[in-house]
Design goal:
Length: about 375
């Protein structure tokens, strides 16, 4: 009877005590979250309740397992398994707590600062820091798990003795990986590119969607994802349209006839922009930038608060200006002249006899025959 009751008391008591402590902790964090709604810390910490309860339960079982006297022949193996689970759960809990603290810090910073570019820079740094913390905690946890085995502890001395050679080999083998990692830190803390920046890479326009220690993902306008190593951004030139501010200036080029009414086109451009919500109202203009024998090139200048709105303004101006010219001033559209040019009255035409000279030529008397 004692062999049955004792394990039930030890294991059941550990599980019950874990559930009670976990429920009480969750209630306290829920009340703290309702009381301090200005910070998401307590709500984020509640996400760690599963690893927290796992740590409690494993620690209680590990400490009281000898009292249970269950499977005595496998005591060492079961104790090692509980130790491994405890180390893994503790690492999981540490990562969740670090993520809650980092996310809370970023949220407070984002609420206190209205500069979108600075907030994106901090977001990039926070993401990379969190990845580094996760990697470090994971490596430490795996190392701690391996050190629980006597064979690995005995091999530690020999590994340390050959650490110099292994370091050189690993450095040569992981040269590209290490360069990408250092490039990731340079991007994060050098403020070269941030999450949410609008960039042009290899002729592709898109938005930076993800930055890790080794690669960077750009989401293009047509929902494609371009993934490239972060070392690309430290070794090659690229366009960052969000650098120094998101507001942008764009142009719309039109080819019209030489007789196009420029002043009326400027007035129409102003009316179009006033009715376009994407225009930020900073500046606009319309000038003639070039001419050809058949057309003139007109450039309309517009502004917007970011790249997306600038695209909307440009396509709106181009469409409505062309429609207005076609409806109100069709002669201003480019055309190919297939007829002779209209000449002023009395202007001589090459190869044609003027009417007056032609009349005199037709009514001139016949010449008299010469005398013999």
């Amino acid at each position: 009877m004692e062999n049955i009751v004792r394990p039930l008391i030890v294991i059941g008591g550990s599980v019950l005590l874990t559930l009670i402590i976990g429920w009480a902790s969750d209630r306290l964090m829920r009340k703290a979250d309702e009381r301090h709604s200005e910070t998401p810390l307590w709500g984020l910490l509640r996400r760690a309740r599963i690893p927290y309860q796992l740590v409690l339960c494993t620690a209680l079982l590990r400490g009281s397992y000898d009292e249970a006297q269950l499977l005595v022949a496998h005591r060492v193996a079961l104790g090692r398994v509980l130790t491994l689970v405890l180390i893994g759960a503790a690492a999981w809990l540490a990562i969740r707590i670090a993520a809650a603290v980092v996310e809370t810090t970023y949220t407070r910073y984002a609420r206190a600062h209205r500069d979108a570019a600075r907030v994106r820079r901090v977001r990039t740094q926070v993401s990379l820091i969190m990845r580094v913390v996760t990697a470090v905690v994971g490596v430490v946890a795996v190392a701690a798990m391996l050190l629980t085995f006597p064979a690995f502890r005995a091999a530690g001395a020999s590994l340390l003795a050959s650490a110099g050679i292994l370091g050189i080999v690993a450095g040569v083998a992981a040269q590209s990986t290490l360069s990408n990692m250092f490039a990731g830190f340079q991007i994060a803390f050098g403020d070269m590119v941030r999450l949410g920046d609008t960039v042009v890479v290899d002729g592709e326009w898109g938005t930076v969607e993800e930055i890790t220690l080794t690669f960077l993902t750009v989401r293009t306008w047509d929902e494609r994802r371009i993934t490239m190593p972060v070392s690309y951004f430290t070794s090659k030139a690229f366009e960052n349209w969000s650098r120094g501010g998101a507001q942008m200036t764009g142009t719309v080029f039109l080819h019209v006839d030489h007789a196009a009414p420029m002043e009326k086109m400027r007035d129409k451009l102003r009316d179009i922009l006033r009715e376009c919500p994407a225009w930020d109202g900073r500046d606009y203009g319309l000038v003639v930038t070039d001419s050809t024998p058949s057309t003139v090139e007109v450039r309309a200048l517009v502004t917007a608060k970011d790249a997306d709105d600038l695209w909307t303004v440009r396509v709106t101006v181009r469409e409505q200006l062309i429609r207005w010219l076609a409806d109100e001033h069709p002669y201003a559209l480019p055309r190919v002249n297939a007829a002779d040019a209209a000449l002023p009255p009395g202007f001589p035409v090459p190869g044609r006899i003027p009417a007056r000279r032609a009349f005199q030529h037709d009514h001139q008397p016949a010449a008299r025959p010469e005398r013999p």
